[in-house]
């Protein structure tokens, strides 16, 4: 970056999946490598920001200059986000599990030969929507929308419902193992109050750099 366009700013990023335990050996999770969120944290730090990265369980190295907080569950992630406010910019890239099991079995559940166990689910907190409605709402609040159908329409609805400023929509159709998840590239649509920008497919690091440039520009215009 030219200079340090995010110097003096605190950027809070969530990344990776959350793991919701069923018993000591099993969990519920979404597919997520954490690569896009980690790349965003790295780019924000390279742009001079103070960066807090709240990471679910992933196998990725902490980018230079980034303060990392590791969490397992959605509720842990929500607490870590809350504890690390205020932030000037929040980018919620984590693939948070929507549900957890209502109760966690203390011992490993056994196969018994009769009917498989039924899991009773409870809803997890929506971290992005909570921030959107919070007194401590960051000045620029950015969410992701991983969709397989009606990508942009769903992202626009999500932007309104969760009171985010921007939603980064990415098409994750293509089937298990064929998709963006875990891959090195991403094709995104940036949904703002002004409309939709379709970005060409590019490496996740490049998505991150361009996003940070867009953020710096938005803050600059804000300060005028
Ligand atoms: O899961 P969904 O498609 O609604 O996620 C959209 C955005 O909301 C993402 O930015 C995701 O990180 C965020 N989210 C969240 N907490 C949840 C579910 C989603 O912060 N429980």
TrEMBL record:
Binding residues annotated for CTP, in chain numbering: 98, 108, 125-128, 144, 158, 162
Start and end residues of each DNA/pantothenate metabolism flavoprotein C-terminal domain: 6-216
Coiled coil: none
Region of interest (Phosphopantothenate--cysteine ligase), ranges: 11-224
Function: Catalyzes two sequential steps in the biosynthesis of coenzyme A. In the first step cysteine is conjugated to 4'-phosphopantothenate to form 4-phosphopantothenoylcysteine. In the second step the latter compound is decarboxylated to form 4'-phosphopantotheine.
Family the UniProt entry places it in: In the C-terminal section; belongs to the PPC synthetase family.
Protein name in the entry: Coenzyme A biosynthesis bifunctional protein CoaBC
Gene source species: Alteriqipengyuania abyssalis
Gene that this polypeptide is encoded by: coaBC
Region of the whole protein represented: 242 to 465 of 465
